[in-house]
């Protein structure tokens, strides 16, 4: 019988310092039973000397390794440096399980046969199409996992669980798969390049655009759900959900379209409704006197004399959208924003890893995850400085027109802002030039809006702006607020806040234990959803097979 592992062992951990590492190994050596460790003999990540950033003054020897434990197989990176005495010592060793023994993905040599007689019960149980209809409706069984949200997070964790034979139902309130992208503003495109955004098992084709228009991506997700045989119910919402400590399962009342209430009893619920929680919508003095329209960026579809409060990603994109629709736009900025362009800075971030010259996506993901986040952030300081030098002309232009800049936490750029703050940056797809050219005006107002009047608003510094529309690019709350809205206080009160880092330097609650048994958060951009859906699926599958103890 396989070893039953404690939850603390099947989790994201960063152990630092010789004494702590020695204690961890000593305490877990019997459980770990690491063996059959082999360095890669082909591909990009064979043994090599690497200088992660010339300005960092760091050099190490690195290689990708494959390994085995009692319960599974993994692939990771090891990095060695030379100490002051001239000895080669391990600087960082990453161990990441990629599959469970006996429960591997049913892909490649384990792919299904496809013939009717190869299926359970033979052709008497129907052909593929007839079986799929029953599977999608869950006529013969309960879903083991219920996923709320059919965007990239929900579809990709559904695909991972499906390949592990963990019956999964994905629900979404929208009428069509992809509507969470399709219904956004007309000019939206992805801000990350295609090679960073591939979906699990089904990468984008080689003629796919570098940056994906939102409607094209929406159609891709609709096709992806069909090709990957995902069970998705659209126009579906949750009426209530109760968790039983006795049965370790949920009782969920679901409303599907205008039909009757359906009761399901999954063992796990995954909240996959996006990176953030509910919109942060401030209220202002005398707002009811305003004759125009005030709304949050989450409600924006398409664009007029239009101030906009907020200068992050959404603020820039929507300001550009308004300008391109003929509006007179003023951006209100309360604090500095980190600005990076898709053409230069984003390219520099992914160069050699997620581009046409890079390794297979699976290896790139292992490499990308293999350094502790705090080490990555330290290296990002140097990368951010190089990006700023490459984009000096644009940044100087923004400064000249009064746009306040910053370069992230400790000058570490966009990655730390995304993971720890959930905002404070703009990935530029054209708005920067409009600001520099004076086509979009910028006004600094550290304390924001003081009050509204009938024809506009008055800022805290006393300046008055005329407006027909005010768009609030004021960000979003924590994902826990959405959990509360959907599942209620009883569940939400046990949940941990999501994102930012814990004491070990790992991201809080997302893709791992949430604070409530049988409840998981799943979110992030397309790349993070691809990478971490694998690890969340492995945690759920391991618990299903009795390989580790779920936290209470």
Task: Explain what you see.
- This protein has 552 residues and is α/β, with parallel strands linked by helices.
- It folds into three domains: 7-100, no CATH class; 139-277 and 477-544, FAD/NAD(P)-binding domain (3-Layer(bba) Sandwich), CATH 3.50.50.60; 287-472, FAD/NAD(P)-binding domain, CATH 3.50.50.
- It is built from 15 helices and 24 strands.
- The protein has helices spanning 18-32, 128-137, 152-163, 179-182, 214-227, 313-324, 345-350, 361-368, 373-390, 392-400, 414-421, 431-436, 479-487, 489-492, 526-544; strands at 35-39, 48-50, 60-68, 72-82, 88-93, 97-100, 145-148, 168-171, 231-233, 236-244, 249-256, 261-264, 268-271, 293-296, 305-309, 328-333, 338-341, 425-428, 440-444, 449-453, 456-459, 464-466, 469-472, 519-521.
- Strands 1, 2, 3, 4, 5 and 6 form a six-stranded antiparallel sheet that branches. Strands 9-8-7-13-24 form a five-stranded parallel sheet, sandwiched between helices.
- A hairpin with a 4-residue loop joins β11 (249-256) and β12 (261-264).
- Residues 106-127, 296-320 are annotated as: Disordered.
- InterPro entries: Auxin_biosynth/cation_transpt, FAD/NAD-bd_sf.
